[in-house]
Amino acid sequence: MAAMRILHALTYYHPHLSGLTIYVERLAETLAARGQTVTVLASQHDPTLPRSEVRNGVRVVRAPVLLRLHKGVVAPAFTALAWRLMREHDVLNLHLPLLEAGWLALLARRFARRPVVLTYHCDLRLPPGPANRAIERTLMLLHRLAGHLANRVVTYTRDYAEHSPFVSRYLHKVETVYPPVVVEPPAPGAGAARRATLAPHGERVIGFAGRVATEKGIEHLLMALPAIEAAVGPVRVAFAGPYEGVVGERYYEQLGPLIERYRDRLVFLGALHGAELSAFYAACDCLVLPSVNSTESFGLVQVEAMLCGTPVVASALPGVRQPVLVTGMGEVAPVADPVGLAAAIIRVLKERERYLRPRAEIAARFDLQATAAFYERLYQTVQAEMAAAAPCASAPPDSRPRLPSPTPPAAGERRT
Question: Average pLDDT of 94-117?
Fold first, then answer.
């Protein structure tokens, strides 16, 4: 296909760590490697980050943050930057939840005459409280404006789309594609070496990967430990991912009493990457994703664990249950139910070999290049549809200002 200029807009980008940011980072860098010109617009969530840089072939532009609203931010310059950038690109890909989604979609469709693709990563579920309910309602209204204007809405699975209060309104324009999953195979012996440090006395190792955040349901995993140990013997629960200072969260502190009760069975490793993460997955007898609400829509970590030979226990949430159901590599457990969660984990630990599948089988189903190719076809389709519907509404593609490819660093930019 002809090279395109693609603008992604989202709240948080590298080095923030979440499933959404990992998704966009992998997608953007893969599209750039396939010859597309790719820009990412995000917030400058950490003031020490550069306002503009080039990372692995992707131009990253960050808008300064004025204030924070729970997990979100208010960045007044975001819209102005988006307006300038969308006119330099062929298509705008908005990644929701995103506060600015509604008016950016309006600017793109009605004024810049650019097609808009929404990638809907998850519903927003904030803790109880009138202020949080107001934030949710406001965001939903802005998202609905974006959904109405968007040319297409992309979700990870049809299962999630049909159950989401937002996406289910736009099923006529929904496309689904599995998220981009990349994890290097564990080096020979790396899993065993990591396991020796996590379980020096031969305990079973239960893994958790991801931010320690409210939607993860970790309290149910901790409350399930007595039943699990009664059935299979001593266990260690290893947590890979940020746990203190997570943006918009006090969940780790709220878990304090449970953490203290089971302190001798728990180990918090912090964020792991590359070979360390692969070794972690390989060291686990199973990975558990006990999420409790639709802020979790899939769980990339499930597929990462499977690619490292580790079966999974996941909550029976729409979308989240899909990796286990389509691969057979694990069990689905009732949501927010420590007894049911314990039973599922016990089944996997007792009959682990029954759940294993070849890495090639998992890799073929969740292929990064296939995901990138899907987006390329979608961008090309929506651009062609807009041109056919309003051939005089915008200048011919060759007359628009073009960004050089690859994009050279502007003044003050840095490459990494």
Answer: 96
